[in-house]
Amino acid sequence: MSPESVGLASDDLPHNSILLVEDEPLLAMDVESSLAAAGYRVVGPAATAAEALRLIREENPDLAVLDLNLGKEMSYSVPDLLADRRIPFVILSGHSRGMVPARHKKRPFLQKPYVVAILLRTIRETLNGSKAQSLPG
Fold it and tell me: In what order do the strands lie in the sheet with 63-66?
């Protein structure tokens, strides 16, 4: 997938870093490929909450795309740390929004299977929204 195929000219590439938290290897590769093709620097993928927490602390990503259900564990500590650090995130889950903790119910949420164009649009909107909120007003 080229930048042009996702609606970006090569000069318009975003260059933001995105932490990918996903335990399913094929899905992680697919999302990583789509993000890289759109010009994002992918951090991870992290397949466990512990790995995601470490990458958040070490890499300080601009945004995260995360699944809350990582194998046998629920990764609720990950969105909590992201929120505490004011790092925006998009939840990408095979479950319903009902499993999202109350603190994060209003966060962007996409259900698997996802559409690449919608994921990329949601990421752009989330990044633009977080930049607008951080501007002095």
Answer: 41-46, 17-21, 63-66, 89-93, 109-111
Copy the structure tokens of residue 76.
Answer: 């609720």
Sequence-separated (6 or more) residues with CB below 8 Å from residue 83:
89, 103, 104
Helix, strand, or coil here: 87?
Answer: coil
Distance CA 41, CA 24 (A): 20
Q: What domains are there in the chain, each with its CATH number?
A: 4-134 (3.40.50.2300)
Cis before 3 (ω within 30): no
85 neighbors 67 (Cβ within 8 angstroms): no
Give the whole-angstrom CA distance, residue 46 versus residue 36: 16
pLDDT digits (tens, 9 = 90+) for 2-28: 444 444 444 455 589 999 999 999 999
Cβ proximity of 79 and 101 under 8 Å: yes
User: Residue 73: helix, strand or coil by DSSP?
Assistant: strand
Residue 60's identity, in one-letter code, is: N
Mean per-residue pLDDT over the chain, rounded: 88
Task: Evaluate if residue 136 carries a pLDDT over 80.
Answer: no
In this structure, are strands 73-74 and 17-21 parallel, antiparallel, or unpaired?
A: unpaired
